[in-house]
Amino acid sequence: MAGDIVFGLNAVTEALSAGRGINRIYIAKESHVRGIDPLLDEARARKVPFDFVPQAKLNELTGTREHQGIAAAVSPLEYTTLNDCLSQCPPEATLLVLDQVQHPKNLGMLIRSAAAAGASGVLLTARGGALLDESVVRASAGTVFHVPVVPCGNLSQALRTLQDANFWIYGLDAKGPDNIFDVKWPARCALVVGNESEGLRPGVAKACDHLIHIPLAREIDSLNAAIAASVALFQVAATRHRR
What we know:
Blueprint: E1 5-7, H1 9-17, E2 22-28, H2 36-45, E3 50-53, H3 55-62, E4 70-74, H4 82-88, E5 93-98, H5 104-116, E6 121-125, H6 134-139, E7 149-152, H7 155-164, E8 168-172, E9 178-179, E10 188-193, H8 202-207, E11 210-213, H9 225-242
Parallel strand pairs: 2-3, 5-6, 5-10, 6-7, 8-10, 8-11, 9-11
Antiparallel strand pairs: 1-4, 2-4
Helix pairs in contact: 1-2, 5-9
């Protein structure tokens, strides 16, 4: 992760609680960061050093004034392999698959939704889409530290590997024939979300078992990728909760 600096109270708190390699925490002397005491207690317990530095130093470290008075130098974010991700999946599991999602903010929001809905991992394209960096950490509010992220060189092949591991593949497509609210979700499923402007690539759509749509009112033809994924993820989670 370029720069190895994350900032903002939520991002630093999540990185610390996830046990990621935080090298040092920096707090602005001039700031009174609300909720900082529990974080400092956790840092002491984990033997993570922290310094109170001038505001100007924090501005320089983060490249912004929007750091909420706190930042951390962290070890680079680590990806995982598909095999390792699958080995950690429970018998009932959901995976989120991203087909060339372009914008780091969208990627961060998608990862945050996946974490909140209890997904077991996020797969993304190794080329042609956003990858993990500081802006993704911020957009995910630090939840990227809690979800395995798998870069895939060939997404269609990765979907076939998921099918071999008993996952059913559902592609989100505004013109898909199946209504998301009518799906009887299996124990293992993967939700595939396409590019913000183009949707699913034809080869990826063909590799899906089902193409599903979210019914929309009035003349609205589609939802933001992160919102659509959130609807689908929590629809699956609600089904699991009722079992």
